[in-house]
Write a structure and sequence with these properties.
With 145 residues, this protein is of the alpha/beta class. The chain has one domain: D-tyrosyl-tRNA(Tyr) deacylase (D-tyrosyl-trna(Tyr) Deacylase, Chain: A), CATH 3.50.80.10. The protein has two helices and eight strands; from the N terminus they run E-E-E-H-E-E-E-H-E-E. Strands 1, 2, 3, 6, 7 and 8 form a six-stranded mixed sheet that branches. The chain has a two-stranded antiparallel sheet with strand order 4-5. Strand 1 and strand 2 form a beta hairpin. The longest helix is centred in the C-terminal third of the chain and has 18 residues, at 99-116. The chain is globular, with a radius of gyration of 15 Å.
């Protein structure tokens, strides 16, 4: 499982011109599921996301988590981040979980993270979405579990 996280001042997801998810200060999280991912990887990623220290403290050091700053989480499913890009000029998706299995894991992810944290919003699995953001820093990290 991979998550591309961006520290943002704000972010939103629109489907057909309608905002379906939006946050102010927090993390925009793109999640992708690989073939071997199961609930264990999802649980591990949730723990990592909620405790990963990417926000600055009073000394301008990245020592605070999204929970510490009471920030928002905007979760967007994006299978392209698990693409195989090791050769050629076209990404391969044989490493990605099947859409049906990935949707099940995404649903589980959303249920579990909302049990652990209150300020969570999301896009819609499999939808054609427009994501807008103001990256803060810029700060972007790729997390794996």
């Amino acid at each position: 499982m991979k998550s591309l996280i961006q520290r943002v001042e704000s972010a939103k997801v629109e489907i057909n011109g309608t905002v379906c998810g939006e946050i102010s200060k927090g993390l925009l999280v793109f999640v992708g599921f690989e073939k071997l991912d199961e609930y264990l990887q999802v649980d591990s990623m949730i723990n990592k996301l909620l405790s990963y220290r990417v926000f600055n403290d009073d000394n301008n050091k990245m020592n605070l988590s999204v929970k510490d700053v009471d920030g928002g989480l905007l979760i967007v499913s994006q299978f392209t981040i698990v693409a195989d890009t090791s050769s050629g000029t076209r990404p391969g998706f044989s490493t990605a979980k099947s859409p049906t299995e990935a949707e099940s894991l995404f649903d589980y992810f959303m249920v579990q993270i909302k049990k652990s944290y209150k300020n969570v919003s999301s896009g819609q699995f499999g939808a054609d979405m427009r994501v807008s953001l103001t990256n803060d820093g810029p700060v972007t990290f790729m997390l794996s579990c």
